Amino acid sequence: MKVDVILGLQWGDEGKGKIVDVFSPRYDVIARFQGGPNAGHTIEFDGKKFILHTIPSGIFHRNSMNVIGNGVIIDPVILFREIGKLSEAGMKPWENLLIANRAHLILPTHRLLDAVYESAKKDAKIGSTLKGIGPTYTDKYARNGIRVGNICYPGFRKMYESLKELHLKTVTTYGFDLASFTLDGLPFAEYETQWFESIEKMKDLKVVDAEVFINKSLVEGRSVLAEGAQGTMLDVDFGSYPFVTSSSTVAAGVCTGLGVSPHNIGKVFGVFKAYCTRVGSGPFPTELENETGNKLRTGGKEFGSTTGRPRRCGWLDLPALRYSIMLNGVDSLIMMKADVLNPFEKLGVCTAYKESGKLLSSYPFELSSEGLEPQYTEMEGWNTDLSSNTSMERLPLPLKKYIKFIEDFVELPIDTVSIGPDRLQTLQTK
Ligand code: GDP
Ligand code: IMO
Ligand code: MG
Question: Which residues sit with their C-beta closer than 6 Å to ligand 1?
Answer without folding.
Answer: 8, 12-18, 40-42, 44, 300-301, 305, 336-337, 339-340, 418-421
